[in-house]
Amino acid sequence: MGTCSWTDPALRGSGWYPPAARDDPGERLRHYATRFPVVEVDATYYGLPSVRNSRLWAERTPDGFVFDVKAFAVLTGHSTRLGALPPDLRPAGPAQRRVAPAQLPHGVTDELWQRFTGALRPLWEAGRLGAVLLQFPPWVRAGERAHAFLAECRRRAGRLPLAVEFRHPGWLGPGERHRTLRVLRAHRMSLVAVDTAQDVPDAMPPVAAVTRPELAVVRFHGRSAAWGTGGKEERYRHAYTAAELAPWSARIHRLAGEAEQVHVLFNNCCGDAAVRSAAVMRELLER
């Protein structure tokens, strides 16, 4: 059980951290690790991780604690700001200009993969890497081309554990679900089950299945009516109730019966909503 960030400014300002940890990155992570055994690193979606930070994260957490690390945007087909790219790989242009992977010079994506995976080596060697989260954009639809993309991600990631979150519901629709699960099993990738609002366009179905016996992942995004449309705070602003989480308790127990580990991560904001929701979910599971 954990959350999708330990550095979120809203969480820092909520009073959940003790005063000594609010302005000290090391103390924040140490405090978080006394409450939860897993956390997702969200910042690596917006910029490449560094070897230094990976070492610090491993040093500041106890044995058994793991990090799920979100893949850099370009690696999963998203656009990114030019300023987020390493200077030696950055095309000319203003830092705020966004660029799609197809617009990058030849070989840049390969190099980004190598730097991303290389930066995670300290976590991997310390036994602190839970999974690399590949969150695909909603325009990546199921089909042969997308299946080849999954195969390419597996090749580039080598032996690193991968977990895949789809944002287009077609991947898990009745006509495609079994093929999607079969492809993920073939590439040794964990399916990420998601909880979002179901009464909005293109809602992801809450499908939970084990496609890699070592790990299953569930991410709770909240049930905001602005899911998929509003700004980040509007999309993820939600405080789960026990009634909303109760149906997931049986699903998570079933996953735990089939996988060695299950990571249950809360991505709802703001303030301390994610840590409070995690506490409610933990109580439900312990019952």
Write out key terms for the chains shown.
287 residues; alpha/beta; eight-stranded parallel beta barrel; 10 helices; 10 strands; 16% strand
Mean pLDDT: 94
Terminus-to-terminus distance: 15 Å
Strand content: 15-25%
DSSP E strands, number: 10
The rough form would be described as: globular
Can you lay out the helices and strands and say which pair or pack?
Elements: E1 2-3, H1 9-12, H2 25-35, E2 38-41, H3 51-59, E3 66-70, E4 80-81, E5 98-99, H4 108-119, H5 121-125, E6 129-135, H6 144-157, E7 162-165, H7 177-186, E8 189-195, E9 215-220, H8 232-236, H9 242-258, E10 261-266, H10 273-286
Parallel strand pairs: 1-2, 1-10, 2-3, 3-6, 6-7, 7-8, 8-9, 9-10
Antiparallel strand pairs: 4-5
Helix pairs in contact: 9-10
Structure overview:
The protein is α/β, with parallel strands linked by helices and 287 residues long. 35% of the residues lie in helices and 16% in strands. It contains 10 helices and 10 strands. The protein has an 8-stranded parallel β-barrel. Helix 9 crosses helix 10. The two termini are 15 Å apart. The model has no long low-confidence stretch (mean pLDDT 94).
